[in-house]
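Students often ask what a holo structure prediction actually looks like on paper. The answer is less mysterious than it sounds. You provide the chain, you provide the ligand, and the output is a string of discrete structure tokens encoding the 3D arrangement of the protein together with pseudouridine-5'-monophosphate.
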Amino acid sequence: MSITAPVALESTVITHGLPRPENLEIALAMQASVRAGGGDPRCIAVLNGHIRIGLSDEELEALAHREPVRKCSLRDLPLMKHSGEWGGTTVSATLHIAQRAGIPVFATGGIGGVHRGDADDVSADLPALAGIPGTVVCAGPKSILDIDRTRERLETDGVTVLGWNTDTFPCFYCRESNHAVDKRVESAHEVAEIMLERDHLGLQASLLVVAPCPETHALPTEEVNQCVMEAQMEADELGVSGKDLTPYLLNHLAQRTHGRSLAANRALLLNNARIAAEISRSYSILQM
Ligand code: PSU
Ligand code: MN
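The corresponding structure tokens follow.
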């Protein structure tokens, strides 16, 4: 019997998180990575006002080059149809769409969280994780964030954090932080069993599987913190805020590290895509 193992992929990372032309190359490589893990990639985006679940290579290419394109969070979703806009869906919007489409696992790079400069700037990713019972594979919250506050918030919101072969909570480019995960997991099967139990208990929050950036590409914490401090100061001075802040900071870091943060971002995205595929397969098998 053939197993279906769909994996949702978000598209804001393509439209706003990565520079061109690397964005297209990485988007295609993520699809390949899902397939290598035995999964079926379903990139979610808004094309011409229509929500799409699964894009062809040609559609990915069109999205990667598209201008203008809206960074489409939950609050933007109901606006797209009438305007006919194109949109890259964030973690919150993608999680919502994937859940309704019955796709149990979703891979991204780093989730949004509480910002460093302004603790009132909280990503819509966090309430979405709190209220939508999916399984999200990421490398932790993005390094540009306030990791302490973000970890605390996940705890408050009842999001179970599973460390993929790790006891420590990673943060995107950096493999470590001062925080712990709720449980270390060593296999996709283990995650799938926890997913089933979550379903059984009727819990409403997502499971967050955090996989550290591969060692070959991770960046040292001190270096990242220094760069983020500078980037955040610059953003404050220029008045960059709202949905523009995260793309601004990521781009600043890529320049400051001479592309090393971009290489780390690529490595962790591919890693997460593959892990998500393995988890989706295991979950399908368990349900047979
Ligand atoms: N992962 C990446 N790069 C990104 C993102 C995730 O490696 O750019 C995107 C996700 O779509 C996430 C968004 O939902 O950044 C968070 O944006 P904000 O902080 O404005 O909520
Ligand atoms: Mn924000």
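The two ends are 10 Å apart (CA to CA).
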